[in-house]
């Protein structure tokens, strides 16, 4: 240990510089790598919905012969992995945070946990009465739309423009895919949705690295 490290700063300017350095170091410790928050979800959408498009293409075509259960299983597994990665990254970064920010985070997490459950319970009551392709479109469009709404809500809570803009983008492509119809929706969500999340993560990481 250098004994000079325990000495007070020689003047007020040096003290201010030291305070700024400590603030920057603390902010970086409390801010998880944006790639861990975005990229796992982008990969899950790109691969999961991509398999849906290949197996259940428009007009009943099959571009890649796969078991019917495989696309949904792969999507759920990848989404589960993404959720674990985000939870671990968030816990490491925000585990020491208390106060209103921690409370907002817990309540927002509850919205992510309870919101889909209540929505999907309603979908389960009606989807059996629809043709398979229309039922699949209903489930996927509702899930993607709910995700977009929660992203915009998170952006509003933390005044995070990137998160809010991503929610807007997901809403727009979800509308486009829904109007395009079964099969096409999966392609739009895979490419524009998953790809958009990957791009958003890369841009957020660049801003983190260049932030003073």
State Rg: 22 Å
The CA-CA distance between the termini, in Å, is: 28 Å
| Count of individual beta strands | 0
List SSEs in N-to-C order.
HHHHHHH
Characterize the main sheet.
Answer: none
User: Could you say which structural class the secondary elements and strand pairing correspond to?
Assistant: mainly alpha
Q: Enumerate how many helices there are, as a single number.
A: 7
Q: Could you name the ranges where pLDDT drops below 50 across 5 or more consecutive residues?
A: none
Mind explaining what this structure looks like?
The protein is mostly helical. The chain has one domain (33-210). The protein has 7 helices and no strands. It has helices at 12-29, 34-55, 70-94, 100-126, 132-158, 161-180, 184-210.
In short:
The protein is mainly alpha-helical. The protein contains seven helices and no strands.
Q: Which terms summarize this structure?
A:
mainly alpha; 212 residues; 7 helices; globular
SSE diagram, text form:
Layout (H helix, E strand, L loop, with lengths): L11 H18 L4 H22 L14 H25 L5 H27 L5 H27 L2 H20 L3 H27 L2
